[in-house]
Amino acid sequence: MNSPRSVLVTGGNRGIGRAIAEAFIAEGDHVAVTTRSGGAPQGALELKADVTDGESILAAFAAAEDAHGPVEVLVANAGITADTLLLRMSDDDWSSVIDTNLTGTFRLVRRAAKGMLRLKRGRIILISSVVGLSGSPGQVNYAASKSGLVGMARSLARELGPRSITANVVAPGYIDTDMTAVLSDEQKEGIRSQVPLARYGSAAEVAGAVVWLASPAAAYVTGAVIPVDGGLGMGH
What we know:
alpha/beta; Rossmann fold; seven-stranded parallel beta sheet; 8 helices; 16% strand
């Protein structure tokens, strides 16, 4: 049994983030989750924070480190959508999604790297999307934010690698969550017909890839994009 690690998951109160937090708790790790609205899973330290607010991120890290020691595993999962076609997309539709999904992640990794560089070890895992690699109509803002995470992770992998810090991306496809629940039956069937495995994924299946990337088995994996998409994004 490995000794428990200090893990921080953003957006850990529902959907994929919650499943990731629960998976690390099951591994015996000390898990802190950030949430804007509350409702962290049992066994996690709940931290009210908003990734668009730099001060709240610093406060969340301070609280997590106070409780569990320096953050050894960061999972940047918090994200939003503001879908609409390009010509209808407002500056605010664009900037709100970029600020949460891309700039928010930058703020997180900048703070996490401080402690990891001192420890000379760490795992940074960014949650992207199949859409970031293959694109999607009505999601110019979201796709740009999620593909940006790939460039970020690969730059981090090169910059932080000499200190035994890995940086990887998990790119989920269509997963059964609140975000996909709003789709019509017709939309859902259209998506399912494009997925080689002919089904939606579960949040637990995404969590499995994240836990593996944080494990000793993945110590030599960095700068990778791991798709958990039933084959939807093959070739991207």
